[in-house]
User: Fold these one by one.
Assistant:
Number 1:
Amino acid sequence: MTVVPFVDLKAQFAAIENEARAAIDRVLASQRLILGPEVESLEREIAAYSACAHAIGVSSGTDALLVSLMALGVGPGDEVITTAYSFFATAGVIVRLGAKPVFADIEPATFNMDPALAAAAVTPRTKAIVPVHLYGQCAEMDPILDVASAHGLGVVEDAAQAIGATYKDRPAGSLGDIGCFSFFPTKNLGALGDGGMVVTNDRALAERIGCLRQHGASPKFHHPLVGGNFRLDAIQAAVLGVKLKYLNGWTGGRRLNADLYDKKLAAAGLPESVLRIPQVRQTRHVYHQYVIRARRRDALGEHLRQQGIGCGIYYPLPLHLQECFAALGYQAGDMPVAEAAAGESLALPMYPELSVDQIDTVVAAVTGFLGDGG
Ligand SMILES: *Cc1c(COP(=O)(O)O)cnc(C)c1O
C-alpha cells in the first residue's frame, strides 16, 4: 500500500487536463509538429520568466548542456570545471565533446559546488565552469562568476532542477553566460516527454545555439557548423505553455511543504549527527527535491518504503567515481564531502499537491525511526 508516493504526476495533470488537451488539439489541427509558432511562443515566455533576452527550445536538458558547451567551443584539450555531485548528464556532455571534466567538491550545507575549490581547479586549459543548482537551490554564483571573469571562462548554469529559483533576486539561468533547463516530466516544469531550453543574454551565442540545434545549418542545407538534431516538439511546447502559467503557484506549494517539513522535523529535536534538514543560503529555493541527511540512511529508506512512503537517493555515487570516468584517475577520498553526501542523503516526497496529512505521515516515520536509535 502506497501512503505517500515519491512523485505524483497524476494529481498535477488532473488539474490542467482540459487546458492541456486543448493545447494538444491545437497542434494536431495545425500539423506544425517541430519548432514553429508553439515553440517560439514558449521561448518568448521562458526568456521573460528567466530575465533573459533569448531562449532556444531544445530536445532535453542534456542536449541544452551539450549544445551550450558546443557553442562555447569546448572540445578536445579543454578542461571544464563542474561539481562532483550531480546527475550524470552534467559531466557526460563534457566527455562527449572530447573535453575533460575537472570535479570540484561540494559545500556540505547546500550540496552545491564549493566556489573556492572551483577556483583552485583552474588551469591554463580551463575553458568553462558548469555550476549546478542542485535540488532547486542556486549555487553560490558570485564567487564563481568572479573566477570565470578573472580567467575569461564561460559559465553554463545547469539549472535543470531550478527553474524559478533566484540568487540574490536574479533568476536561475540568467546568472552565467548560458542557462540550461530540463522539462523531463518529473522536473518542476515537466513536459509530456523529453524537452529542454537554453537561455542567454548574449545574442551571438543565441544565434550559434539556434544554428547548432538544426545540424549547424544556416541557411537550410548550408552548414557553417557541425550541429545536431536538438529540436523541441510543438506538442511539448504547447503543453509547457499551459503549465508555465501555474509554475509560480506550484513553486509556492513546494516551498510551503518544505517549510512544514523543516518545522516538523526540527520539532523532533534530534541531534545533527542523526538528522540534518536542508540548509538554505541567500537564494529562493524551489525544492525540486527535499533532501535530508540521516544516520543509517539505507535502513531509514527501507523503513519508509515498508511504510508505503516513497523516497530516493540523489545521488548514490558521485561523478568522479563513475566507472566510465575511471580513466580520469580519481580515487575514493578525493571528494570527501560529495562522498559523504552520497552515503547520507535521502530525498523525501516533494510536490505541490502533498497534503499536510501526508507530510505528517512522512515526518512521523522518519523521526520515529531515527529517534528509536535507527
Ligand atoms: C534532469 C537533469 C539533467 C538532464 O535533463 P534531461 O532533460 O533529463 O536530459 C541535467 N542535469 C541535472 C542536474 C538534472 O537534474
Number 2:
Amino acid sequence: MSAPVLGSAERGAVAPEPARYAFGEFFTEHMVTAAWTREEGWHPAYLRPRGSLSMDPAMVGLHYGQAVFEGLKAYRQADGATGVFRAHDHAERFQRSARRLAMPELPTDTFLRAVDELVASDAGPLPDDPALSLYLRPLLYASEPLLALRPAHQYQFVMIAFLTGGFFADRPDPVSVWINRDQSRAAPGGTGDIKCAGNYAPGYLAQQRAASAGCQQVIWLDPVEHNHVEEMGGMNLFFVHGSGSRARIVTPPRTGTLLPGITRDSLFTLAARLGWRSGEERLSVDGWREACRSGAITEAFACGTAAGVTPIGTVHDGTTSWRIGDGGPGPVTLALRSALTDVQRGRAADPGGWIRRVTAAARAH
Ligand SMILES: *Cc1c(COP(=O)(O)O)cnc(C)c1O
C-alpha cells in the first residue's frame, strides 16, 4: 500500500477539515533527493515527483540505523505568503545529528534550497486555515549495500512533506502523562541529543504501558538515577512557577540525554518578550509532586514542532497521581502558545530571522 498523496485535484479546493490531516499521512506530490558518494561527495539535489526509492536488502541504514532526520514546519503567513520556521537552525541540527553518526553533513545552503523548492512547489494545498501547516521531513540514510561494521560510503538525502493539522485548537486539551520509572530513553554519552532513526521505537512499549494506565504520554526521567524529569519522548517539558507577572518558566537542563528542541529554545525568547523569567533547572519527581501540592508549580506543558505547546493536566506515577493547577490549560501556557503561533504565522514581529519566506512556484501544475 502506498501513502495517500494530495493530488493537484485537491489544490484550491475548499479548506478541508483539520481533523482530516492526521500527523504523517497526507503527503504532498514532490520530494527533493540528493546522493552522496565517497568518491564525489554531494551530487546535485533536485525536486522530483514523490515516489518509492529503491533499496538493496543489505542497505546499511536499515540494518545498523545509520540514519538521521529532522522535522520543521511551513505556515501560511498573515499576508498569504508561506513561512518556514527556523529552517537554518534545523539545518544545523541535521548536521550535528549526521556528525554524531559519522555521516556526511548536508551543506546548509543545500538544505535551505531543498526547503525552498519543496515548499514553493507543494505549499499550494495549504489553506489559510490556521489549524494546518506543512510539515517537512528531511532524512539522511546510509544507502550502501554492504554490511561491514564501518560508516557507509554512500548516502541518500530525501526531503518529503505532509499536511498536518488538528494540533492548534484555540483551547488545547491537556494531556495526561505517565512517569516511566524503569526504562530509559537515552544514555549518557549516547544519542539522546540528536534526531536519529532509533529515537522513537524504543519508547513505543512505554507508550503502550502509559495507554494501559489511561495516560496519553510518557515522561522520561534521567537515565542514571531515574529521579529527575527530562522530557516527553518527542517533546520537551516546561514548568511554570508562580503566576501573573511573577511567573517563571523552567525546563530541564541540557544533560545530553534530552533533545535540545528548537521550540524549547524559541520559548525562552518569547517568555522574555512576555516579561517572564525563564531558565534551566533540574526537577525531581517528588519535587514536581510536592510543588504541585503546595501550589508553587502552577502549570506544566510540553513543546515541539509537531504539536506546538501542549498543556499537561495530570501526572501518574505508579499508584500515585496528581493534578497540575486545576487540570486545565493555564494562562502562561496559553499565552506562550499564542505568542509562538503568532510568530510562526507572521502575526507578530519576527524575533530575528526565524521566518524564511517562500513564494509559490510560478510554474503551473
Ligand atoms: C524533535 C524532538 C523534540 C522537539 O524538538 P523541536 O525542535 O522543538 O521540534 C523533543 N524531543 C525529542 C526526543 C525529539 O525527537
